[in-house]
Amino acid sequence: MRKLSILIVGFAFVIASLSCQDVAQVAHTKSVSYSSTASAKLHFPQPWLDEMEGFYSIEQIEVRKVPNSSHDEFFFRALPDGDNQYAHEVDKNMPKPRYGKNMFTVSFSAGPQVRAATQQEWESGSRIPTEPRSLFHKGQDYSVGEIEYRQKRYSKVGKYWGEGLLSPNGKWLAVFSYNGEKPPPDFFHFITGGSPPEGDIFWQIYDTVTGQKVFEWEAKNVKGPTHFDHPLVWVEDGYFIFPEDEAAQNFIVVTLPPFTPEVNPVTIQFPSRRDATGKLLPAGARNEVWIPLVPLTKEQAMKLTAPHETEISEVRLSAQPLPTELLLAIKEETEHRRVNRQQRDGAGEYHYKGVSTYYYALSLDNPAQTRFASKDEWDRGRAVRFVRSTSATTEPGETVKGTYPPYRPFPKTGNKWGSPPLLTASEWIAIFSYGDAGKMFVDVYDQRRGDKLMSTTLSSTVSPDELFKNALWVEGGYILLPLNASLDSFAFWQLPGGL
To answer: Could you tell me the pTM of the whole model?
Structure first.
């Protein structure tokens, strides 16, 4: 859907000229606001690029802010080719992002206001997360299907899907779609038939917690409608900015409703596996293990008969669509003893282990709501991927190395590294450390650009390492970290975008 931004040889120029339309312009617009949502126009008085670079489109816009500043001022600058995940910050052999010539200061406090920024102002600011996370529809082609996110479904307004674009902290979801007649398939677009030369574009913004639509906007009779999904800017979950023209000089600024951030992580407590007298409750499943001791050496017997640690053995999703629950199987060795067992070939010494599996359900709409689940519920559930915490690829020093390109170094908050020190899944990484007085620290980063999503301090009455080694990353963007050795109390994080 994106227009080629640079041409290297003449043949590429021919391809681009066939696949791209004239500079898109919004002829007529109609906007509808819901609740307290307001929108305004934002015009940048000068082009982003030098006149000699006029052929380039704008892939991204970088936004900076003076650290700890109370001023509602942000510095904007174009990245014609994108940021390449700022890989040069890690590998000096990688090229730096190419910036546009002009810089601007944008203030939102009294309506969007723009002025030219100086190089000194630009360099005084620090980069803030503004890039959306893409969510894609589930459907056979671009004309059908819905976006599913956090147990909610979102439909399109236009005939064809664009993308779902999640705000950096996951609070808002912007949905882009469009109308238009696509040209028939040809040599260059033998699958989709290419992009419509003219059509309508549609934006909706949803609150991902409630599923409520907070903003809707459309434009009719637009040239090249598929080019209007970039560049986009989310500013501190308070503003969403999208272009009105392909030159990216005119934008719509959506002022999003104020909100109270969700508690994240949530402390969850599973029902106890013991009654008031300390007696074990019946388990959902039980297995017996008999270990013959006669042929074993003392060292072998000690290894095989050592107590098995309590663990989460598997994770599933409930079969019913709503309310969706996360199902966890927790295995606990509830009995172990030496037994003289009579067999046909004579008596023998055995070590007996009784392993009980308890099933729990956790509501994803209200994670603090937990209960026992039945074996039947478990059997009907759908298995989901989960990842256990792992050791660092190298011995931790001041930092540990990420596992996702560009393999950034990440620091710890506490004075001691956890063991294991990290938990990763795709672009996310959680860094474990601890300090004195039973304090544990969990820092969650985006591995791609190095942005810190959140920092959490937790208390522990047992060795932090015993808890860190049982941490899980669960498909859908969830972290589970036990808060006690019996694994019946956890910290539960919900992260933007899932795995």
So the answer is: 0.86
